[in-house]
């Protein structure tokens, strides 16, 4: 235990812990995105998918607890690294000239905080039904929770759409840049396999994949059944 405590307190150990937790969270984000793309399969397909997830009681809660644990560890370690970096350089640069880092890299701590707040909003919205409670307990013709209609109602609101647009953009940028940094922290980057465009590719795929269904709702392409 003392070895692990010393390991996680070191800069290398902390970065590697952030890398592992970050990559696992990225994997979940990709799977979650693919699930939401089933909106294009219609009400029955999406509700069948949602019903399948809700029925996995033995798996659902351990997975949620695990994801929460990963997120907490990731955030706590990140805060520790930021604090350590600031303590090592109490006085700022006289003139700051970033050479290789992008603005995304320089603002990872801030985007991380905004992403954390966005995830809290998302849980309140779709998991707890506190944002639009009137649409949360609607049932479909097969007496299943009508997640499809809730999704449609949710993103018919321009305000809700705007929150997700900004939140998903920050999430995509954060995970995209993080993917490259985490691979480097784990020693998985190699000159033969350049990853310069990996971050941009990951960010673009996540942003497009997550925002296509809400945009289709707002544009009237995805509609309520019978409308």
Question: Which characteristics define this entry?
Answer:
227 residues, mainly alpha, 3 helical TM bundles of succinate and fumarate reductases, 9 helices, 71% helix
Low-confidence stretches: none
Outline: elongated
Query: What is the element string, with H for helices and E for strands?
Result: HHHHHHHHH
**Fraction in beta strands:** under 5%
**CATH top-level class:** Mainly Alpha
Q: Total number of helical segments? A: 9
The radius of gyration is 20 Å
CATH homologous superfamily heading: Fumarate reductase/succinate dehydrogenase, transmembrane subunit
Describe the structure concisely.
The protein is mostly helical. The chain has one domain: 3 helical TM bundles of succinate and fumarate reductases, CATH 1.20.1300.
């Amino acid at each position: 235990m003392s070895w692990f405590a010393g390991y996680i307190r070191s800069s290398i150990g902390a970065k590697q812990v952030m890398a592992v937790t970050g990559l696992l969270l990225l994997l979940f984000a990709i799977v979650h995105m693919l699930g939401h793309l089933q909106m294009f399969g219609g009400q029955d397909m999406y509700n069948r998918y949602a019903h399948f997830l809700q029925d996995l009681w033995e798996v659902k809660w351990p997975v949620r607890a695990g994801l929460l644990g990963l997120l907490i560890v990731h955030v706590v370690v990140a805060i520790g690294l930021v604090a350590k970096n600031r303590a090592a350089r109490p006085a700022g640069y006289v003139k700051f000239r970033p050479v290789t880092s992008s603005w995304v890299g320089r603002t990872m701590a801030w985007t991380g905080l905004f992403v954390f707040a966005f995830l809290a909003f998302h849980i309140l919205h779709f998991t707890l039904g506190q944002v639009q409670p009137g649409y949360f307990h609607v049932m479909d013709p097969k007496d299943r929770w009508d997640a499809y209609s809730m999704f449609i109602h949710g993103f018919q609101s321009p305000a809700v759409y705007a929150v997700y647009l900004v939140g998903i953009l920050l999430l995509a940028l954060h995970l995209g840049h993080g993917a490259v940094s985490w691979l480097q922290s784990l020693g998985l980057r190699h000159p033969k396999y350049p990853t310069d465009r990996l971050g941009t590719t990951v960010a673009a795929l996540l942003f497009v994949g997550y925002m296509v269904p809400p945009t289709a709702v707002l544009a009237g392409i995805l509609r309520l059944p019978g409308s």
